[in-house]
Amino acid sequence: MISSLRQKTLLFVITLLPQLALSAEPQGEGTLPTAEIQSFVEIFETIREGYVEVLSDEDIVKKALKGMVSGLDPHSEYFTKDELVDFNELTSGNYAGIGVEVELRDGNLVIVTPVDGSAASEAGILPGDVVIRIDSTLITGLGMQDIVLLMRGEVGTKVALDVERDGEVKHYELTRRLVEEESVSKKWLDGNIAYFRISQFQGDSGVEFYKAIDEIKQEHPIDGVVLDLRNNPGGVLQSAVAIVDAFIDEGMIVYTSGRHDISKSQFVASKGNTKLATVPVVVLVNEGSASASEIVAGALQDHGRAIILGAETFGKGSVQTVVPLSNGDAVKLTTALYYTPNGRSIQAQGITPDLVIPQATLTFNKGQFFVKEAELKGHLGNGTGGEERTSADVALDLSELAKTDFQLFQAVSILKTLPKLIQKQ
């Protein structure tokens, strides 16, 4: 005989299941997994009656739902109403916190990337760092929403992080602040080369990027483009599509495929959106380039439209869909995988650059002495009236960018060389 409590619990679970089915294929025609439901009811009762602290029925069910969804993969989550509001704030690019994109990987909280201009970035936190403790709380066993709540707080309040890097634990004291981030920045580099940095793909990043192109074109023509996607954790798919569309005028950009027809989609280029169809492009990526960044790099690589330079990317090639529930909560569920135009899956593999160049710190031999012809007493002038160059000119050309950003230095060197190679062909 089933107890009255168990009958009520069983009825509650059976009523709840259709809301969470999300078009899953049934095990049999019109059947429910009764044995599994019975096990759920028994566990529910055991927790309700025997757990050391008193929990409401709602608390127990919420924890069960969160565990069920988060157990699927690192990117699926169950959101309560309040958590859904927080999630929407994060994707809008306007929130209070320390500014990091994190990933739970085999129970470890790994920094995917610090957000440009954030407290974490300025403190020196790096991609690949493993967070061990937030304030006095160890990360072990915590879910993603618990971690987010620990990291976020009121503007001006402090949070302490213990971070493991290369076997050494580092301690950081960070002050939370409002992150109001424009996702696209621009500047000129040497030789009419335009530099665009996209820090993450927000809802309006495509509009920002097109505006940045128009503004910089008004100053003078663009001879080459560096698109910097390093430490960009991804974001909104449509914004990534818009970025690629600025460089190609036809063909596939990305497609998705999953179990159901609703998860199958294709995104193709449109001539009306193309702004830089022929300008040489180098895309910078690294281990912190994930998701939408990998879509952009993979598409431009498959179309032969850009040289991809840097380090192998993160390898997040899955699609998450936020599915609202009737009670106001929502499920962020992995529903498909991304594929590049040539059919490559990014998932758990990433994009391998055309030129694998690690970020490095160059040191120049101090006191190295050399002399150029122009420094010899009585030297002849240039036969065509060209400007003379001394050893000091050579040292100045090499030192600054090569010292501060070796990968960017290599990208600029390629873009300055490409026109000369094309002319010789």
From TrEMBL:
Organism name: Marinomonas ushuaiensis DSM 15871
Cellular component terms per the entry's GO annotation: outer membrane-bounded periplasmic space
Name under which the protein is recorded: Peptidase S41
Entry-linked SUPFAM superfamilies: ClpP/crotonase, PDZ domain-like
Family designation: Belongs to the peptidase S41A family.
GO BP term, pick one: proteolysis
NCBIfam families hit by this protein: prc
Keyword annotations of the record: Hydrolase, Protease, Serine protease, Signal
Ranges where the PDZ domain occurs: 84-152
UniProt GO molecular function: endopeptidase activity; serine-type peptidase activity
Domain of life: Bacteria
